[in-house]
Amino acid sequence: FQEKFNVTSYNAMSFAIITIQAFAGWWINGFIVSVLCVSWMKKKIFNSNEKIVLVLGCCRFVDFCITWVYSFLSIIYPHCIYVHPMSQIFSSITSFLHSINVWVSACLCVFYCIKIANFQHTFFIYLKIKIDRVVPWMLFGSGLLALVMAVFSYDVSDRAIFKNINSTAAKIIGTLSVGTDEHIFIMFLISAFVLTTAFVVVIFSTLLLLFSLWRHKHRMQANSMRNFNMDAHIKAIKSILFFFCIYSISFTGFILMLFYATKREYLQLFFISIFQPALAVCHSLILIFSNPKLEKTLRRTLSCFKLK
After folding, report:
1. pTM
2. By C-alpha distance, which of 85, 74, 64 is closest to 18?
3. Coil, helix or strand for 177?
4. Transmembrane stretches, by residue range (predicted)?
5. What is the DSSP code (8-state) at residue 291?
6. Of 77, 126, 220, 290, which residue is most buried, by most CB within 10 angstroms?
7. What is the pLDDT of residues 215-235, one digit of tens each?
8. 54-98 pLDDT, tens digit each
9. ∠ at Cα 47 (37, 33), nearest 5°?
10. Are 188 and 258 in contact (CB under 8 A)?
11. C-alpha span between 198 and 99 (Å, rounded)
């Protein structure tokens, strides 16, 4: 009875936390998507930055929906999610959404770097001129990589050997204990490679922007007035640095999840998996306050609620 009570308590606590995170994610990302879509319908103009933010907002909105549905089913009817092919479908969709979130976020950093940084290299100048044509290809590449990850995740879930169905630790985190398998190890390696590559892209973009700001500052030392380019540098660097901190925490959490998965320490995995979605919520808030249109609309909306 005590074991059943502990499992029920942990499941109820995890579902409550996920529900709070899901509602926050729905509201914030739904706000981003609705504001950008309304603006596009009114002005018929959609710049590259808004395209990236819109795709990121849509993916995160769907991601929170899938996460909440999975958590809800694991509480109400836990055995249905392990029926073939439900587990494989959930694994594939989750892998696709997580991968595309990571890569589209990295694309946003690359966009800021190309758009704002000043370098005289021929290839960099070409990218700056053709940035509006490059962005759709960046988004297409992100979706293609995420699709490959989703297909491979489905194959790994289909080949995985499930056991210990009645395990207390497995029920706490809402998943079954998976036996050691070479396909799962390869999946971990590929996931680590994808996340590491995106992390390197973010670091490289941040360093380029910082170097460009340093050069521009030295050029403007003779002029006491700040120009628009300097302000754009600083604003972009603030946004990227915030995202860099969030990305670093997320990357550390992913490495810890791999470590605890090999050690089969499910309680630590539970807390890390609960903490990870909060980082996506924080980054969505940063996207709102770094975009003048979104920030202005949010302030107007909040002021209306305050007056009412």
Report:
1. 0.82
2. 64
3. strand
4. 12-40, 52-77, 89-114, 134-154, 184-215, 236-260, 266-290
5. S
6. 290
7. 767 666 555 555 556 666 677
8. 999 999 999 999 888 888 887 777 777 667 777 778 878 888 888
9. 25
10. yes
11. 10
